[in-house]
C-alpha cells in the first residue's frame, strides 16, 4: 500500500536529500522542469534522468540516461513517466536499492508499487512533492534545525 498518508509523506520529504527525477525535461514549461526547479529551491539535490538528454545539463545538473548510471546514491526516485513506461524504472530502483519511489500525479502502477514495496522501498503514488511540501508546511532544508 503506497505511503500516501500525510504523516508518511512528511517523514519522506523531511528525510530525503537527493532525488533522481526520471523523465526530466529541459523545457521550462514542462511540469517535470517546474517540479525540479521547485525542489532545488527547497534545498534538495535533484539529479535529472532522461536517456534523450544524457550528458546535457538541466538546471545546473548533468542528466543521466537511467538510474543505473547515477554517479552517487539517491534517497528517492521520482517518476514523471507514462504509467506503461514505469516498470523497467521501478525494477532499476529496486536493483539500486533506492529507499523511496515516488510516482507523480497520474502515474499509477499498482503492480509496480507492490513489487517495490515487497523489495523494501517506500512508495508514494499519484502525488506531487511540489503540492505536498506547502500543504504540509515543510520548510526548506536550510531552515530546518
UniProtKB/TrEMBL annotation:
<feature type="domain" description="CoA-binding">
    <location>
        <begin position="13"/>
        <end position="107"/>
    </location>
</feature>
<dbReference type="InterPro" id="IPR003781">
    <property type="entry name" value="CoA-bd"/>
</dbReference>
<protein>
    <submittedName>
        <fullName>Succinyl-CoA synthetase, alpha subunit-related enzyme</fullName>
    </submittedName>
</protein>
<dbReference type="Pfam" id="PF13380">
    <property type="entry name" value="CoA_binding_2"/>
</dbReference>
<dbReference type="InterPro" id="IPR036291">
    <property type="entry name" value="NAD(P)-bd_dom_sf"/>
</dbReference>
